[in-house]
Amino acid sequence: MTDILTLDLDSFAPTVARDVQDAAIRTIEDGGVVVLPKATFALSAAEQRFLSPTWSDGHAKNVSLDGRRLKGARGGGRDLAELAGVVERFATAAAGLVAALFPRYAPYEKRARTSFRPQPAVGRAVSWRKDDSRLHVDAFPSRPTHGDRILRVFSNVNPAEPRVWRVGESFEAMARRFLPRIRAPLPGSAVVLAALHVTKGLRSEYDHLMLGLHDCAKADLTYQREAEQQTVAFAPGTTWLCFSDQVLHAAMRGQYMFEQTIHLPLSALYAPERAPLAILERLLGHALVLA
Ligand code: SIN
Ligand code: FE
Q1: Confidence band of 37 (pLDDT split at 50, 70, 90)
Q2: Using a 6 Å cutoff on CB, does residue 30 contact ligand 1?
Q3: C-alpha angle 13/19/147, rounded to 5°?
Q4: How many CB atoms lie within 10 A of CB 187?
Q5: In angstroms, how far is CA 243 from the centroid of its own chain?
Q6: Ligand 1: does its nearest atom lie under 6 Å from the Cβ of 33?
Q7: CA-angle at 88, arms to 84 and 89, nearest 5°
Q8: 91 Cβ contact list (under 8 Å, min separation 6)
Q9: Angle CA 1–98–30, to nearest 5
Q10: Are the C-beta atoms of 250 and 132 separated by less than 8 Å?
Q11: pTM greater than 0.90 (yes/no)
């Protein structure tokens, strides 16, 4: 069962007592969610105007900042420059929060995409594979991680509505259930996918398995209905963090959220032996990435 740890910290640059830090580390590296109801990402009165779906371009699911460029947004030049500034501010705040809670991660934090999600979490017609209202662990077809972690910081900036997730059973329980269903990749396919730039670099056996677990969980409607799970509501103003490659999660409701993705090498972790790579290697009895 996913562990939920709620902390009293009320800023993105908190002073964190040692025992609180230890609890946060244990929770997140064991596949739990750390929730900070009082760490609110504040928008100024003028910035509140961005709480509207009209800022999204209608094609992309999210407005996102990858490096300097704002993608998926629509609007006037000055508005979009201001929105990019807000997204950038969230990125900086999120990185600071991670460093305060998990000091060991700080020198390793590799900032990836920052997103603002002005569309409702559910309601768009999407294929089952893209349906994030089904329990899943994150794994991205185009971006092999070779065991590196996907750490995410989320903030619900909706003043009136919670963001609601379901979270599921442990990573290991899910992996034991679905590993036998994953077919081996076609021989040579990793090289072909990389050559065609479908993937950024080679897809390791680990990445193949993580995609398989993502797909198997989403495709199994009985699992979706009957697997051990609980509903968690993130109230307005709440910030939360988890390793989304480890926590079974599903977005059920909500609108207006910021999200920061941070990649961490395994060597950044306090307990790499509890990471998905180590769990899968233990279950299968062989190495899943090249040394
Ligand atoms: C996801 O990461 O699967 C969706 C999270 C959300 O939209 O709340
Ligand atoms: Fe996800």
Answers
A1: very high
A2: no
A3: 75
A4: 7
A5: 6
A6: no
A7: 120
A8: 65, 111, 114, 260
A9: 20
A10: yes
A11: yes
Whether residue 291 has pLDDT greater than 80: no
Q: How far is the CA of 78 from the centre of ligand 1 (A)?
A: 29
pLDDT tens column, 57-77: 988 889 999 877 899 999 999
* Interval 31-57 mean pLDDT: 97
Structure tokens at 43: 């928008």
- Unique residue bearing structure tokens 């963090």: 241
Residue 139 beta carbon below 6 angstroms from any ligand 1 atom: no
- Give CA torsion, residues 118, 123, 124, 125, to 10 deg: 170
Count Cβ neighbours within 10 Å for each residue of 44-61 and write b for 16 or more, e otherwise. Answer: eeeeeebbeeebbeeeeb
CB 202 within 8 A of CB 3: no
Report pLDDT for 36: 98
